[in-house]
Specification:
This protein is α/β, with parallel strands linked by helices. It has one domain: 3-Layer(aba) Sandwich (Rossmann fold), CATH 3.40.50.2020. About 20% of the residues lie in helices and about 30% in strands. It has helices at about 10-30, 45-50, 105-115, and strands spanning about 5-10, 35-40, 60-70, 80-85, 95-100, 120-130, 140-145, 150-155, 170. The strands form 2 sheets. It has a 6-stranded mixed sheet, sandwiched between helices. The longest helix is centred in the first third of the chain and has 18 residues, at about 10-30. The structure holds inosinic acid.
Length: about 180
């Protein structure tokens, strides 16, 4: 795929600045606690790596991965866990780290799943928030950037597994968001 349809919308210096702010804010809000940060694979891996290096309090990290059941339930919110946590979160302060919230279906599933494990608290951090396409409301405590209704790549986000390594967020011209299948 050629690079020419890629247009930077959030440059690296803005990402760095915002992630520093988020790291400081979360550290202040969780002072005296030791939260478990749970990254949703794969898209959050770069955001999580940068965010934890801006955290000033002790914390743990873990990962969870989900996938859709298949074509017949596209958009239904029916997701399955394909990689579970490796730690027990009972009575722990949990912070879910997501790359982008679009319809909200993924986060809604993960949040409900984690709540069944009796954590002390659960909050959500997302780097990007595309509110316009929301189907399910999920409570998001920390948002990096609100973005318009365009498909984006870079900084962990992919288009058919490409572009995750770009150090910025870019929009992909010609990508049709309305036809994005529910795949993770
Ligand atoms: P939701 O369940 O519709 O909120 O979708 C969230 C997931 O879809 C994210 O974790 C991403 O993996 C993926 N996703 C949504 N929008 C985009 C995008 O613009 N670029 C790349 N991945 C996206």
């Amino acid at each position: 795929m050629k690079r020419k349809g890629i247009k930077i919308i959030i440059p690296k210096r803005e990402l760095d600045k915002r992630i520093r702010e988020l790291g400081s804010k979360i550290s202040r809000d969780y002072a005296g606690k030791e939260p478990i940060l749970i990254g949703i694979l794969k898209g959050s891996f770069i955001f999580l790596a940068d965010l934890v290096r801006q955290m000033k309090i002790p914390h743990q990290i873990d990962f969870i991965a989900v996938a859709s059941y298949g074509q017949e339930v596209v958009g239904s919110g029916a997701v399955k866990l394909i990689k579970d946590l490796s730690v027990n979160i009972e009575e722990k302060d949990v912070i879910i780290i997501e790359d982008i919230v679009d319809t909200g279906l993924t986060l809604n599933f993960i949040r409900k799943n984690l709540l069944l494990r009796s954590p002390k608290s659960i909050e959500i951090v997302t780097l990007l928030d595309r509110k316009e396409r929301r189907k399910v409301e999920v409570p998001i405590r920390y948002v990096g950037f609100a973005i318009p209704n365009e498909f984006v790549v870079g900084y962990g986000l992919d288009l058919a597994e490409r572009y995750r390594n770009l150090p910025y967020i870019a929009r992909v011209e010609g990508a049709r968001l309305a036809q994005r299948k529910f795949e993770l």
